[in-house]
Amino acid sequence: MTLRIDPARVENAAKDLYIRALKMLPPDIKRGFDALVARETDKTAQSVLGVMVKNIAVAEKTDNLLCQDTGIPIYNVTIGRNVVVDGVALKAAIRRGCERATREHPLRSSIVHPLTRHNEHTSCGEGVPVIHIDFSDAFDGMRIEMIPKGSGSENNSWLRMAIPAEGVEAIKRFVIDCVLDAGGKTCPPTIVGVGVGGTADVCVHLAKRAATRPLGTHCADPEGAALETELSEAVNLLGVGPQGLGGDATAFAVHVELAATHITMNPVAVNMQCHSARRASALFTETGVAYGY
Amino acid sequence: MAHYELTLPVTEEATRRLRINDTVTLQQRLFGIRDATQIALFDRDRATRFDLRGHAVIHTAPNVKKVPTSTEHPTGYAPICIGTTTSMRMERFTEPLLRQLGVRIIVGKGGLGAASLAAFRELGGVYLAIIGGTAALETTWIEAIEDVDLDDLNPESLWQFRIRDFGPLLVAMDSHGGSLYDAVDHAARNRRDAALAALNVRR
């Protein structure tokens, strides 16, 4: 049976997803906090983590946003099997939903023209919301994942076009140096996303995908997964700590995503997801729209 | 390590008493300020009718809702979510904030740099660290939006908040050259070699 996607439902979902993502922290992130709190040895860091955990409870109790940065809205659409959808209408509906969330909740629009700095107060603009569309044969229906990407972390993003002669060591060294350069500016503890391979733009996108992947997931590639484990441990030896005020909890984890690359290339990118690792998803099936993380 | 309750405005003497690792809870008044606000004030020579001498500013552009003006919401804005943004973007404005406007306390996220530290030392100022991303909690520390200036820059207007029990906040930079960020950065960079060794990176 074929699911015809109704743009009106997409618009409502896009609106609901933005608000949900801003208010409800995913359970994998909460578990991440529990793990960090359990092993933190520094007193200031314990206090800082405690405030972060308290904030999650206050946000839930007061039905408020976890963080005031409404971020850059990103919608990742995955079209599964047996779906009929008008792609143009889909993108327009997502955009309208994003704007409605902003106008109706209301939310602070953090989106401006890059040259004039004019804010339309819609969270929309040229190329924003960012909408990615991909396809999957793993399920029936359509999934929309919404990530409001905070700019504190986003403003600390890096790309290095290393060369093959520098090897995997260049990747490891780059990740360590990016974490040191970020310091407290990315609101640690972070999920450190590392992109490896691809073209330059694919590499940076992979870093974003890695940073915004749920905690507890692993790179599908075994070499990538091994790198994740190694880097996760090493990064937390640096002592940058929560908010860059010192301590063990510099990162929840390091995630790696990779793509094949050119024989002369060895690109590596780093993008971090701050501790307000916000994410919401909607699954469209024949039974309706189901919300999750 | 001491804790202080400070009712704004404060004196230079009270400001210079603070040392890194002390904690502070602010009372009464706090001014919200951000990139565009300071560009307007210092690069474009716009004036504000607010007197900021002895006061604390916080790096923020709050989420607000337009409501009818009332005694509860005299500006016609109700607070929805008020958090704190990355301070380092506004590093170059610390000196004029202190020198031209008489600000004593900057509340922000992630720290400021060497020029700010020097301004704090010369002119008598401190940086109090907000835990970034804890806006839901921070919003409960703000009782009301009392006034707003330069509102054409909304949401990066110059906001006047009435606050109660705002904190406790860590003194992360003081007027004596102390900076927790410098200390942590220095220590972390000294651990770089150990981290690389754990990764079997030889060079």
Condensed summary:
The complex is a heterodimer of chains A (293) and B (203). Chain A has 293 residues and is of the alpha/beta class.
Task: Please give the structural blueprint.
The complex is a heterodimer of chains A (293) and B (203).
Chain A: E1 3-4, H1 7-23, H2 27-39, H3 43-62, E2 72-81, E3 83-84, H4 87-104, E4 130-140, E5 142-149, H5 151-154, E6 158-162, H6 167-182, E7 190-197, H7 200-211, H8 222-235, E8 251-259, E9 266-273, E10 280-285, E11 288-292
Parallel strand pairs in A: 1-3, 2-4, 7-8
Antiparallel strand pairs in A: 2-5, 5-10, 6-9, 7-9, 10-11
Chain B: E1 3-7, H1 12-16, E2 23-33, H2 35-43, E3 56-59, E4 63-66, E5 77-81, H3 94-99, E6 105-108, H4 114-123, E7 126-129, H5 135-139, E8 142-149, E9 158-173, H6 180-190, H7 192-198
Parallel strand pairs in B: 1-2, 2-3, 3-6, 6-7
Antiparallel strand pairs in B: 2-9, 4-5, 7-9, 8-9
How would you describe what is shown here?
The complex is a heterodimer of chains A (293) and B (203). Chain A is an alpha/beta fold and 293 residues long. Helices cover 39% and strands 25% of the residues of chain A. Chain A contains 8 helices and 11 strands. Chain A has helices at residues 7-23, 27-39, 43-62, 87-104, 151-154, 167-182, 200-211, 222-235, and strands at residues 3-4, 72-81, 83-84, 130-140, 142-149, 158-162, 190-197, 251-259, 266-273, 280-285, 288-292. In chain A, the strands form 3 sheets. A 5-stranded mixed sheet of chain A has the order 4-2-5-10-11. In chain A, strands 6-9-7-8 form a 4-stranded mixed sheet. In chain A, helix 1 (7-23) packs across helix 4, helix 2 runs antiparallel to helix 3 and helix 6 (167-182) packs across helix 8 (222-235). Chain A is globular, with a radius of gyration of 19 Å. Chain B is α/β, with parallel strands linked by helices and 203 residues long. Chain B is 26% helix and 30% strand. Chain B contains 7 helices and 9 strands. The longest helix of chain B has 11 residues, at 180-190. Chain B is globular, with a radius of gyration of 18 Å. Chains A and B meet through helix 3, helix 6 and helix 8 of A and strand 4, helix 5, helix 6 and helix 7 of B.
